[in-house]
Amino acid sequence: MRINPNPTPDLLAALARVQQDEQSAMLELTTGRRVNKPSDDPTASAVLVQNQDQSEQTAQYLKSLTNLRGQLQTADATLNSMVVALQRAITLGVEGATGTLSNANRASLADELSGIQDQLLSLANLSFQGQFLFAGTATRTRPFIADDASPSGVRYDGNSGVNAVEVGDGFLLPINKPGSQLFAAAGKNVFQATHDLIQAMQTGAGIDAAAAQVRQTLDYLSGQRVFFGNTVNQMDAQQTFLNSQKLELSQQETSLAGSDMASAVSRMVNAQNARDASLAAMGRATQTTLFDYLK
Amino acid sequence: MSGLYGSLTVALSALRVEQGAMEAAANNVANVNTHGFSRLRPVIVPGEPVVVGSLSFGTGVVLERMQSLRDPILELRLHEETQQQGYTNAIVDGMRQVEVMFSSTGSDLGSSITKFFNSLNQLSTDPGSTPLRQSVLTAAGNLTDAFRNGSKNLDTLKSNLDLDVQQTVDQVNVLTAQIAKLNAQIADLENVHEDASAFIDQQTQLIRNLSGLIDVSVVQTEQGLSLTTSGGTALVTSNRNFVLDSQLGVDGVHHVVASGADITTELSAGKLAGLIAVRDQKIPGLDADLDQLAVGLSTSLNAAHHAGFDVNGTPGGDFFVPPASSGAGAASTMAVAITDPDLLAASSDGSSGSNGNVIKLAAVHDQAIVSGQTPIDFFSHMTFQVGSDIANGQSELEASGIVLRQLEDQRASISGVSLDEEAANLVLYQRAYQAAARVITTVNEMLDTVMNLGR
C-alpha cells in the first residue's frame, strides 16, 4: 500500500493541537480559573451566573444587617431607658402613697414625676439618622406631641406601619414597632399612666391605684422590649448563616470554575513533552530520500 | 520492418519514451510541494508488432499518455467535509464575538440585574434616604444601559456579518468564474486528446476553496464539471458561471439571490450558510431573548411600582418606560422613566418611611417573569445556550478537522509525489535510456561492418 509521502501537514496539525493544549493549560494556571468564558464549560457557566447572583445577594443581606443593627440596638437601649424611668416613677408612687407625706412633699414628687414624663416623651420621640424610630412608617413625623386636649396629655401622630427587611431569601425580618403599640396601647399607655400618677400625687387620692397602673405599663413595655432583643438575636443568627452560605457559594464557585492546579500542571507538562516530541519528529522526518544515496 | 534499420527505429522509440518518462519524473519532482498537485505516471505500451510471414517483429515502445493519479470520489468527500468545516467555523467565529457579552465582567447584564436588586435591598433598610433612592435609580440606569449595549452589540455584530455575507458572495463569484474558465480550457485540451491534468488539479483546488464558502455539488458532464448548490441552484455549467447576487432585503440584511430567486435559506453548508445562520437565527434569537427579558423586568417592576407611593404620598407612576406591546426592540429602547429620587414609590402605605413597596419591587428578583423563569435564571439559560453553541461547534470542528486530515492523507497516498519513488524511476529511465543508446551504438557498428564488406 502506498502511504502519504509527505507527513509535514500531519505533523504541523499535531503541533498546532499540542500548542493549543499548552496554551489553555497555561491560561488556567495563570488565571487560576478553568472557566474563563461560557464555551469553556457551558453548564458550569450557567450555574456560575446564579452563583454570582446569590453570592452578591448574600453580601448585600450582610450589609443590610449591619445597617439595621445600629437602629435596633438604639431602639432597644431607648426602651431600656424608659423601663428605668418607669421604675423610678413607681418608686416615687410608692413613696407618695405612704400617707405621712405633706402636700408640699407630694408636690415635689409630682414635679419629679412630670420630669420623668418629659423624659419619656423625649425618649419616645427618639430619632436615628434623621428617622423617628417609634413613628411606625411615618418616620419623618414627630410621633408624640404634648397635647392638653388628649386625656394622657400626649397625642400620637405616627402611624401603625411596620417595615420588614429581607435579610435572607424570603426571610423578611420586621425591624420596628410603632409607638402606638409600644407606648400608647389601650390600658397600657405609658403617658396616661404617668399622667394619672402625677394627678393622684397632686390630689393625694388614688396614688396606689395609679402606681399599680404604671407598674402594669412597665411590665407591658418590658414584654414589648423583648421584640428588639429577639430581633438582634435573629440578626446575629442570620449573619452567621449568611457567612457560612457565602463560604459555601465561594466553594461552589471554586469547584465550578477554579483551576485544578495539579491537573493543569500535568496537562501543561504533557503538552510540552508532546510538543518536543512533535518537533523532534519534524526535525527528523523527510530529511533523506533516495536521491541522497544516488551517486 | 526487420533488419538493422528496424532495430535502429526500435531503439530510437525507446530513447524517446524514456525521455518522455524522464519529463514526467522531472515534473513530479518539481511539483513535490505544489498543493493539490496530482502526480503523473507515464503510460508506456509496446508498439504494434509487424507480422512478416510467420514472424512477428516488435516495433519498439510508445508513450501513450501521461496519467494523472487522482481519486475523484475522494476529492468529492474532501469537498463535502470542507463545506461542513466552513459552516461550523463561521458559526463558532460569530458566536465567539457574542460570547464576550456573557463573560462575567461586573458590568455585564447578569451583574447589572443583581446590582439593581441589591440596591433595592439596601434602600429597604432606610427607605427615606435620598442617597439610597438615588443609588437605586443609578443601578436601574446601569441595568438599562446593559440592555441597550447588549442589543447594540448584537446589531453591530449582525451588520458585520452582513458585510461578510456580501464579501463571501463576491468570492464565490470570483471562484465560479475561474472554475468555468478552466472548464473551457480543459475541454479544449481534451478535445484534441491532450493532457489537461494540470488544469484539472487547479480546478479541483478551486472547487475545494469554493466548498469552504458554499455547499457545492459536483456533477461530471460531457461538457466538463457542473456545479450546483445542494439546493439545486446552478453555479457553473460548461464554460458559464452563474453569478450570485447579494440584495438588501426588507428585513435590513442582504439576501443571496441567484437569477432572481432568493436562495438565502436554502444554503446548508459552507461559510456563507454559517454566516447566515448566525446572522438570521442565532443573533435574532438572542435579540428576542433580550427583548423578552427587558419586557419582563420593565412590566413587572412597573406593576409593582404602581402599587406603591412616592415620598409625597402620590401613587407611583412608571419606573421604566413601558415597552411596546409587541416587545420588539424592548431591550434597545429600555429606559428609566423617573429621574427624581423622590418619585421612587418605596412606600406601601403612603408614608415616607415605609419600605413595603421596595420589598415588592425586590421580590421581582425571585418571580417567574420571563417564560416561567426568574430574570437571573433566564439570563443563566442564555449564557448556557451561547456557551454550548460554541462548545458544540468546537468539538464538531475538531472532529471534522481529523476527518479532513485523514482524507488529505488518503489523497496524498494516491496523488502525492514521493521523492524516493521519483529517484527510483529516474534510475530506471536512465538505465533504459543508456541501454537503448547502447543498442544504437551496436547497430551502428554492425552497419559499419556491412559497409566495409566490399573492401
Task: Describe the structure in your own words.
- The complex is a heterodimer of chains A (295) and B (455).
- By secondary structure, chain A is mainly alpha-helical.
- Chain A has helices at residues 8-31, 42-96, 103-124, 179-182, 190-203, 207-257, 261-284, and strands at residues 127-128, 131-132, 144-146, 154-156, 164-168, 171-174.
- The radius of gyration of chain A is 39 Å and the shape is rod-shaped.
- The model of chain A has no long low-confidence stretch (mean pLDDT 90).
- With 455 residues, chain B is α+β, with helices and mostly antiparallel strands.
- Chain B has helices spanning 4-30, 72-99, 109-124, 130-191, 197-213, 270-306, 356-363, 375-415, 419-451, and strands spanning 40-46, 50-52, 55-57, 61-68, 216-221, 224-229, 234-237, 240-241, 244-248, 254-258, 261-262.
- A four-stranded antiparallel β-sheet of chain B has the order 5-6-7-8. Chain B has a three-stranded antiparallel β-sheet with strand order 9-10-11, covered by helices on one side. A two-stranded antiparallel sheet of chain B has the order 1-4.
- In chain B, a hairpin with a 2-residue loop joins strand 10 and strand 11.
- The two termini of chain B are 28 Å apart.
- The chains are: A mainly alpha (295), B alpha+beta (455).
- At the A-B interface, helix 1, helix 2, strand 2 and strand 5 of A face helix 2, helix 3, helix 7, helix 8 and helix 9 of B.
